[in-house]
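Here is a protein:
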Amino acid sequence: SNGTHHSGAVQSDPQLFEAQFEELVTELTEQDLTDSVLADALNRLREVLHYNTPGGKRNRGLSVIGSLRELVPPTELTQDAVRRALLVGWCIELLQAFFLVADDIMDASVTRRGQPCWYKRERVGLDAINDSFLLEGSIYRLLRRHCRAQPYYVHLLELFTETSFQTELGQALDLMTAPPGQIDLNRFTMERYKAIVKYKTAFYSFYLPVAAAMYMAGIDSEEEHNNAKHILLEMGEFFQIQDDYLDCYGDPAVTGKIGTDIQDNKCGWLVVTALGVMTPVQRAELESCYGRHDSVEKVKALYNTLQMPTLYHQYEDHSYQRLQKLIARHAQNLPHAVFLNFAKKIYKRNK
């Protein structure tokens, strides 16, 4: 297909995925809207796509084809089906880019994936709001163009719109729980924390790619999707807790990012768990230090006193065992490898 295979060399999924990106950019910026008066806007779209979509670990996008390969026997998986799975993977990466561009404005973040946030770029500023809309709109143009004739088309549309809304509700909870400059640790409960994680991260990062692959494989029974959702939301919760842990204890040389949760007054797993095991005196100290740039080391010292790394590693082991049980119970009709491939990537990772 159009020169991506040289001399019959078989390309890996990540290579095929990579190669597809430029085709999608061309398609979105050159082939669809040929009205010449839109040239400047389409050049802007190209720049927005290039700056915000690639980069990152690509786990979400690649897990569509990864899951589809577990769900469909290799002999039944056509080259077109593979290309569509890669495309839907890019749609998930676009959804992520749409959220991240907007989140960085709301959080007043400075860097993302080792470069300045898009809105921080010279001459971008709050125009980035519209750029995030362009990223979202690109998803539906691509799905329409490539999947419109497929029996799962409406399922995919509903999956993307539903997941977007769930993520937006999660972001609303997050924004309400830790408004900048208002530190109120009473809002930081485990129940609220888990709700934010489930809606803001777990749905789009874990359920979305596997559910998309299931629909593409012709699996549309609500029961199977609920079974998968059960397992994947649990994984998503662990993934975020691990992310929160690495924010404080990860090595920036490995993770590629410098943690800021403490000074950002984030409702993270460490602070929520610490609140449950500390004395009133320690709580008073935390009240005076959390959410401040000058007291990060004091908060970390308190975490160490409370043995947070030990509590985290206990949690990690328990979570892994619980996940194995969930897979045994809920994945009777689904290949366990779909879930185990994810689990291998995230348990014991350090970035």
